[in-house]
Amino acid sequence: MAWLPFADAASADLRLPRLLRLSLFQVSVGMTMVLLNGTLNRVMIVELGTPAWLVAGLIALPLLLAPFRVAIGHRSDTHRSVLGWRRVPYIWFGTLMQFGGLAIMPFALLLLGRPENFSLGLAASILAFLLAGAGLHTTQTAGLALASDLAPPEKRPRVVALLYVMLLAGMMLAALVIGTILANFTPTRLVQVIQGAAVLALVLNMTALWKQEGRSAAVASRDTPRPPFAEVWAAFTAEPDTRRLLTAIGLGAAAFAMQDALLEPYGGEVLGLTVGATTGLTGAWAFGALAGFAFTARRMNDGADPLRMAGYGITAGIAAFLLVIFAAPFDVPGMLATGAIGIGFGVGLFSVGTLVAAMALSSRGTGGVALGAWGAVQATCAGLAIAAGGILRDVFSTFAVADGLGAAVGDRATGYATVYTIEIALLLIALVVIGPLVGRDRSNADHTQQPRFGLTEFPT
């Protein structure tokens, strides 16, 4: 099977069939993300008549759990199991929470549409979204840590890229299938789709987990040292450059994510594109992301520095956002489509590069903490940025239309352009932060002999 994409991600201890089976947990996560952030958003507002503010609040609930990914990673690092497993229990209980949240979710949402049962529906909906979000974060954090445990260091870039491709594939496939099934909406069909997704998540995660982690006597032993989280976190953040790396990850994630809810409305409202054409922008973004994943994995497999690749992603993102901004005054939809591809390409480079850099920290025995910190910072900053992007768009568009900024920019495009300009500024700051880290060996605690790398040496 050497001809298959990412076939070289396999190794003697992690064969390709086993690796592909492990990656199924990412398909499950992608499917759940589509349900929480996409499908239910539209169904609750349009078909069920739920107030938009309530929908936004429910969808934001899983974001509140993102910071706990660090603690989840630590617990999976230090877990004592009589069966000798570290990661398996967390993936299993994450799967159960994912299943439970999705199982009760459709009934909770239907109750929201009935005034006499609104309070019960609201309580059940909060529980469903919290369970699904907690399951998603737990499964992904422990699953990535397990992949880091199983993959040899030289193969991790390709493994990371494969896992990200499977996440994106799960999102794209779920969006296509769920959207098609719910085209003719009925309450019964909503229950069937969401509960079917719950069962599928359980099957995918169980298949991914089966016989992946070997049993260890050290994990089962009471005598194995298990330092408390506060001690491990203090040691982790005390390492040279760790805080700088996390800061760069947060800035980059926020910069790329702020436009997530705006790209399609921008094409429709400002450039007058049809619904089909704006939907194609998401496809263009996905194509760019896939290309970025593949390119980053190939380059790092040849020995490229992961944070250098992340820097290239930031640079690509800056160029892409400039194309998006100038698509409106030049009235060239092709520039917007090219910009969407460029944003996806930049996300691919940045995400894989920074995740590989985080995985490199696992050689210090804090793999779960490192990957949990990466996931927590990325998810939290991205979620806050998406919310801020929508608010800033509305504020500046309303102000501009009211002639508050002058006749030259008195249209709704000003709000979008303001958000894209802020994203460019965040990317530039991220470039400044990440520059000194490029070329350093993050698997070695002694950085005193590493050559300095500053902005003058950074690739532009």
What does this structure look like?
This protein is about 75% helix and about 0% strand. The two termini are about 35 Å apart. The chain has helices spanning about 15-20, 25-45, 50-65, 70-80, 90-110, 120-150, 155-180, 185-210, 215-220, 230-240, 240-255, 265-270, 275-300, 305-330, 335-360, 365-400, 415-435. With about 450 residues, the chain is an all-alpha fold. About 50% of the residues are buried. It is built from 17 helices and no strands.
Terminal-residue CA separation: 37 Å
Question: Spans with pLDDT under 50 lasting ≥5 residues?
Answer: 443-460
Order of helices and strands: HHHHHHHHHHHHHHHHH
Strand content: under 5%
Write the topology of this structure.
Elements: H1 16-22, H2 24-47, H3 52-64, H4 69-78, H5 88-112, H6 118-150, H7 156-181, H8 187-209, H9 217-220, H10 229-238, H11 242-257, H12 263-269, H13 275-301, H14 306-330, H15 333-360, H16 367-401, H17 413-434
Helix pairs in contact: 1-8, 2-3, 2-6, 2-7, 2-8, 3-6, 4-6, 4-16, 5-6, 5-8, 6-16, 7-13, 7-15, 11-15, 11-16, 11-17, 12-13, 13-15, 14-15, 14-17, 15-16, 16-17
What's this, in brief?
This protein has 460 residues and is an all-alpha fold. It has helices at residues 16-22, 24-47, 52-64, 69-78, 88-112, 118-150, 156-181, 187-209, 217-220, 229-238, 242-257, 263-269, 275-301, 306-330, 333-360, 367-401, 413-434. Helix 4 (69-78) packs antiparallel against helix 16 (367-401) and helix 5 runs antiparallel to helix 6.
